[in-house]
Design goal:
D-Maltodextrin-Binding Protein, domain 2; 2 domains; five-stranded mixed sheet; 10 helices; about 45% helix; globular
């Protein structure tokens, strides 16, 4: 009888524990649901995987400043450069997925997964939307002996990149192959550093998006020899595409979008997606972006992810041809 009594007590104790545990779980779920409904209640941090002052940094800070208006909270940009963006993306992938950590995605998140299978991949993120797409231009100093793309035939150049195997390495490397020349490449800590070295005469050329170098073209310090875009860019009607000049190069373009660590609450995700879409269509943002030399281009999170998946085999092919793809 005594043993039976002890067993019953144990069962009652266990039952109370289960009830308390279940009640606690329900309270936690209710709190999470309430938090998601009230989101956002505090400031967000936006990870930028490139150095301050570069094209991607300036572009994302501008977008974030207008995204704040649609979320109703402040957004703090945080630069985490290194390893061609992988350090920042690795950090973002491991951040809390509560909606208060977002980050900039650029083309090289796709390059890195080919260069290093251990690098963060787009599956590590919730893809929220693309807000910009920019053509790439081939820049030299205005005092350079190279005055046109045709002058590059037989050339021997030192070209800067923001990371070996990145977008600004892939584009000139493909042109190099078309020209049948041999160029040397040296990496810098982002486009701002590369621009400084190009202007200072430490390198011969660099492939940039126009928003970072526009003022130096206008001032006469830099010259554009061509663009890797599929068609001539409206703002630069006199700059030929390399394709129209007879060079078979892929129409590589730089894109910029927003992502968060994978596993966002559905309501939180919906709030972010809606705010990003609204910002991308905001007249004040569009005017500011145009003045900054940016090229707004919106894709929804779903379309942006599909676009990146379509790019994967193209980038793998380019890097394989360069001898840089990991098997």
């Amino acid at each position: 009888m005594h043993g039976f009594t002890d067993l019953s007590a144990a069962r009652r104790t266990g039952h109370r524990a289960v009830v308390l545990l279940a009640a606690g779980s329900l309270l936690t779920l209710a709190a999470c649901s309430e938090d998601a409904e009230d989101y956002p209640t505090g400031s967000l941090e936006m990870m930028i995987p490139w150095t301050a002052g570069g094209g991607s940094d300036l572009s994302s800070r501008l977008f974030a400043s207008h995204l704040e208006d649609h979320l109703g909270v402040s957004i703090t940009p945080a630069n985490e450069p290194g390893a061609n963006g992988s350090l920042g993306w690795g950090s973002l992938a491991q951040d809390s997925n509560d909606g208060y950590n977002i980050g900039l995605l650029t083309y090289d998140v796709l390059s890195n997964e080919v260069l290093d299978p251990q690098a963060p991949a787009i599956e590590d993120f919730d893809i929220l939307g693309q807000y910009e797409e920019q053509a790439l231009f081939f820049y030299v100093r205005s005092d350079s002996e190279y005055e046109s793309a045709e002058d590059l035939e037989g050339s021997s150049l030192m070209i800067g990149t923001s990371g070996m195997g990145g977008i600004d390495h892939q584009a000139p490397a493909e042109l190099e192959g078309e020209l049948g020349v041999e160029w040397q490449y040296t990496p810098f800590d982002g486009h701002a550093d590369g621009l400084t070295n190009l202007l200072g005469g430490n390198i011969d050329a660099f492939v940039f998006t126009p928003n970072i170098a526009a003022e130096y073209v206008e001032s006469g310090d830099l010259r554009i020899l061509g663009t890797f875009a599929e068609e001539r860019v409206e703002e630069y009607p006199d700059v030929p595409t390399f394709a129209e000049l007879g060079y078979e190069v892929a129409p590589i373009a730089s894109f910029r979008g927003i992502a968060a660590p994978a596993g966002l609450d559905e309501d939180v995700r919906a709030t972010l997606v809606e705010a990003i879409a609204a910002t991308a269509e905001d007249e004040e943002y569009l005017e500011a972006a145009e003045q900054a030399g940016n090229t707004p281009f919106y894709r929804s999170g779903e379309d942006f992810e599909a676009y990146m998946n379509d790019l994967r085999p193209v980038i793998e092919g380019l890097l394989t041809d360069m001898g840089l793809a990991e098997n």
